[in-house]
Amino acid sequence: MFSSRVPDALEPNRLTQTVRRLRASGAPLIDLTVTNPTATGIEYPSSILDALADSRSLRYEPVPLGLTEARRAVACDYGRLGIKVAPEQVVLTASTSEAYSILFKLLCAPEGDAVMLPIPSYPLFEHLTGLDGVRAIPYRLEFHGRWAIDFDTLDAGWTDTVRAILAVSPNNPTGSILTGPELRGLAERCAARDSALVLDEVFIDYPISANAPTPDVPRECLTFRLGGLSKSAGLPQVKLGWIVVHGPDREVQRALDRLELVCDTYLSVSTPVQHAAPALIAGGAEVRSHILDRVRANDRALRRLAAAYPSIQVLPCEAGWSAVLRVPSTRTEEDLAIALLENSGVVVHPGFFFDFAHEAFLVVSLLPETGVFTEGIRRVMETAHA
Hints:
Elements: H1 14-24, E1 30-31, H2 68-78, E2 90-93, H3 96-107, E3 114-119, H4 124-131, E4 135-143, E5 147-149, H5 151-157, E6 162-168, H6 180-192, E7 196-200, E8 223-228, H7 229-232, E9 241-246, H8 249-266, H9 271-306, E10 313-314, E11 322-326, H10 333-344, E12 346-347, E13 349-350, E14 361-365, H11 370-384
Parallel strand pairs: 1-12, 3-4, 3-6, 6-7, 7-8
Antiparallel strand pairs: 2-9, 4-5, 8-9, 10-11, 11-14, 13-14
Helix pairs in contact: 1-10, 2-9, 3-8, 9-11, 10-11
């Protein structure tokens, strides 16, 4: 009866089962996996959502690619990053996840066409591709002092069914930013092989170091840049994302014409959030500043604590909300994560959740309140180094 796009195996994994059991028992847990900024004590302006009550929203005026004022606000916001975007290049979506689904519909025929995606990276890609009937072909990021694309695995995995390369910069969870040569290498391959580049930049606003690079995206191939208020303004609940279309003029226009048809079919972006977009983007600057202060403070605390545990390495992180710890391989990542839960009351993600090539890695969020984060990391270090 049910589609093969939805997996049959829906049982929670062992780690999730343990978390649920401990929470049901009332055991206090320090959650170092939380990625919801609204649940971590981040300060928000009390008026930040007032613009959603704009009376203009009482009138429904469907515009497939989004209202002009909202698209203009998104385009202008790229200016603070030194990125020139025309409002006509912006397509509004309800989220980054929806943006992926729209692009898969634009680029891929179901049950045959494929996209290439990086690993390690966010595990949501498995579901996003599967739900749209698109095959996922991985290419690896390798760590040699910094994370970099292994172009050998990308070239070896490429087939004539590949319609796009997915790249995440800054990547989640590695925190790595693609270099100019890496972006050129991706763009050259896409241009030569009649494929598109999909560049997820949702964490671009969160450089851990003040001099983190923002390389230019080459224009020789059709490129789709993804962003949204979920990260840029810390507002995952208001549901506004976007696609920015770059590339050769003819290909950009062909893509926009087809995106208009796809978006007109669903019209998923609400009118109130579009009218509120300029105010939400402006108000998000204060929230973004608080989040950036938090992740930088937690990154400093993490590296300070790690200095006392030479068997544990905190990998370099250029940007984002996550940190990766390489720990001694005295047990499996899953067993270590379970031990941290049951014996130390700390929730972390094991590296295999993100398809790290080997053990042993732990992934932690940099969003928790700093006092809570520091205590949680202290417990992680004491358990993991043994």
